Amino acid sequence: MICIKLFLFFACLYIADAERCTHATYGRITDKKYAANVIRIPPGVADSDITVDPMDKSKCPNGIVGLEVKACDGDVPDILAFTSLYKFVVHRYGAVDEWCVVTITVNC
Predict the structure, then answer these.
(1) Mean pLDDT (whole number) for 60-76
(2) Nearest to 105, CA basis, from 46, 31, 41
(3) Most CB atoms within 10 A, among 37, 40, 56, 70?
(4) What is the DSSP string of 75-99?
(5) What is the number of domains present in the chain?
């Protein structure tokens, strides 16, 4: 019985320490994907306007048709709001005392 309680205790600690991630997509999602960028938003910054760089023609000959974005923060999930195919906003409404990691994948 003690083993089960200890296991549950450590499982709860692990879950409490896990990052909180938000996933969002914009445009058309295809099978041809490329990791465009990883952006780190520093502690203390609540809102970040992010512009995606159009990829070079060798990777995306017909241009970008969609985006997949994942933002991971330490305390609560962030809000992702797209303003266009190349721009979005990361709104952090938690304690904002940790780094936020934003991973961008483009779809060609």
Answers:
(1) 90
(2) 31
(3) 70
(4) SS--EEEESSSSEEEEE--S---S-
(5) 1
Whole-structure pTM over 0.85, yes or no?
Answer: no
Q: Which domain holds residue 37?
A: 19-107
Indicate whether 48 belongs to any domain. Answer: yes
Q: Could you give the percent of the chain with pLDDT greater than 70?
A: 80
Question: Is residue 63 one of the residues assigned to a domain?
Answer: yes
Q: Give the span between the Cα atoms of 106 and 25, in whole angstroms.
A: 10
The secondary structure of residue 52, as a DSSP letter, is P
- Residue 1 is assigned to a structural domain of this protein: no
Specify the pLDDT at position 37.
84
Task: List C-alpha distances in Å: 22 to 6, 19, 64, 73, 99.
Answer: 30, 10, 22, 9, 14
2 assigned to some structural domain: no
